Amino acid sequence: xxxxxxxxxxxxxxxxxxxxxxxxxxxxxxxxxxxxxxxxxxxxxxxxxxxxxxxxxxxxxxxxxxxxxxxxxxxxxxxxxxxxxxxxxxxxxxxxxxxxxxxxxxxxxxxxxxxxxxxxxxxxxxxxxxxxxxxxxxxxxxxxxxxxxxxxxxxxxxxxxxxxxxxxxxxxxxxxxxxxxxxxxxxxxxxxxxxxxxxxxxxxxxxxxxxxxxxxxxxxxxxxxxxxxxxxxxxxxxxxxxxxxxxxxxxxxxxxxxxxxxx
Length: 263
Known about the structure:
It is built from seven helices and nine strands, in the order αααβαβαββαβββαββ. The protein is α/β, with parallel strands linked by helices.
């Protein structure tokens, strides 16, 4: 079994162990708030994009809350892709409850998105932690390029690779008195192996194996360029967007936003 299949089983298991009510009220925020699931800097960038009449997609869309938020900005249609069938099912349920009818959710390995979606989208979204689930970013961003129309936009908002060097609270290497200390190599080649569930979604338990990967900034940028995408914007921020706030405003680049256009 390859790591994609193992990750699929681990994600679906984590959803089965989800915190009570996790994701079940997302539709209420979609009905009453504008871009409720994005941090302020990302929301501000998204508001500057004209989505009217556009076909958009999110790769690794999880329970669809971010894609559905963008649909509320006037996109013509939206398709979310994710490997976990039960999480995708919640996405479809959220769309129905929020009355967002021009959306669709597909369960598949992102690298195996069918060819019928080639040249289908004006906008591809990746959010926090998504690209870490792929060992080969060249293959990933080539798939992005295939799915984008000419002039289409890749929008990537993620943890900064420097965060992979920092020990998180709860790890043996973490010392709250020495927050300027790194614990891991920036150039780590070995995958991250986890068997404790998926913290933001589920309780801790002896889970099936999650396998993820570190990528340097140069690896990310080169893979995007190799796919025929021209970088239009790259912003770095000194705050984390999902793991912990202990390193916020301490001088580390902790998150970033990247936009690239298909030539």
